[in-house]
# Entry
Amino acid sequence: MPDIKTIYVVDDEEKILELIKSYLLKEGYIVRTFKDGFSALKEFQANQPDMFIIDVMMPGMDGYSLCTEIRKKSKIPIIMVSAKDTDIDKVVGLEIGSDDYISKPFSPRELMARVRSLFRRTDDKYYIESTDTTVKYRDLVIKPNERNIYKDSKNLEFTAKEYDFMLYLLNAKNKLVSKAELLKAIWGFSENEDTRVIDDVLKRIRKKLENCGSKVQIVTIWGYGYRISQE
# Structure
């Protein structure tokens, strides 16, 4: 029998909290609700859930700050919910460590679909993550049980999304991976989503690989996508 997942929902709007909670309960999840970031963070420090759904705009500790604090201690899935729907807002939410971002007003069914999709992605662990065995690729060492990548025993300090991005390309075994495929597989975006999130993540990964002197490079195939260098 599969484990029942526990989800913490954080939003200062009572109606939104109850709406999300009712749908999650119908899906079979255990749900705890919080009206502010501070109380959610306090409970998280005592008992970690399997996922967070966090509103961005809250008094006191906002959603971005709460997400940042969670990421200091855990890589559990986080979905940000916000009335802000510009590209820059999405990028900020994703780059501070959230795994998905949905704009208000939203369909509860869409949110449930994203919850299920995110659990599938984190449970599947992108192939290599299905084993705790250390994986070596040229001068890099990938440790799936830690979700870390090393060069000469030095942790390159990849963020969660940088790690997922790199791992996805490594699993592609030098095949070309389209931008649309990456957006859907890692961020859950549709292929026509207008975002620069891939460009931002890629820029940081390349800088980290360059700074450590790694021979591994990510090649951009203009008009299509990306692949790990073969030489």
Q: What stands out?
A: Residues 7 and 51 are 5 Å apart (CA to CA). Confidence is low (pLDDT under 50) at residues 124-131. The first strand starts at residue 6 and ends at 10. Residues 108-124 form the longest helix (17 residues).
